[in-house]
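Hi support team,

I submitted a single chain yesterday and got back a structure, but I'm not sure I'm reading the token output correctly. Could someone confirm the output below corresponds to the sequence I sent? I've pasted both exactly as they appear in my results page.

Thanks,
R.
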Amino acid sequence: MISLIDTHCHIHETDYPLDCGEVLAAAGAAGVEKIICVGTDLQSSRDAVEFAVMHENVFATIGIHPHEAEKTLAGLGPAKELDAILAGAFLAKKIVGVGEIGLDYYYNHSPRETQIKMLNQQIELALKHDLPINFHVREAFDDFWSIFDSFHGVRGVLHSYTDNLANMEKALTRGLYIGINGIATFNKEPNLLAVHKELPLDRMLLETDAPWLTPVPFRGHTNQPSYIPKIVEFLAQLRGETYDEIAESTTANAEKLFKI
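Hi R., thanks for writing in. Yes, this is the structure output for that exact sequence:
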């Protein structure tokens, strides 16, 4: 069995409803041998790092989600606090990226100007530490590309991509990866199916975003990394490729981007 990697989940969160020991055991049994836990605010980022340190083959990214931008910027120096988390040499080996960061104009839980300010600060942090970025972008690509193109050397992934082919092509020309999760198994919108069919294998990453976005046939259950194979099975059938081809490519992509 070719090993798989869940490049984006939140099983480290204190409100994750499943037993994490059982979840990690199930992931291993399903061939999901590496997992990246993703921070969404300062405390979540600390928790992700602590969880990664406690578990072999679990890694962490740290960052401020756009929903949390206004609340976080009300505090003192969030970018400096994230920088401080990266200071420890051992912890730095477990921290493999910055994220989940970006822009979300669908919900607008934080003012757009605040989201933009927080995004710029965190891109600078990623570049300072030579780390890839886990981007969250929803209905905000015009502003996002403008910000992205103002920096040089940014690498990363568009997490949970559900936009169109045009923005996918813009991402690919900029060297970004595209994160595919359980949405692929239940959203049959033609433009999104086209994305899942046409995305080059060498730019695809797999993720669960657990506890959310549970794939078919487990809809209604809490998502977990062991469900990654169901996404691979769906993509293999949709794209006319084998399970092993997708598993091998996505694992190699994740290892290359996050250096794990």
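A quick pointer for reading it: The chain has one domain: 4-258. Let us know if anything else looks off.

Best,
Support desk
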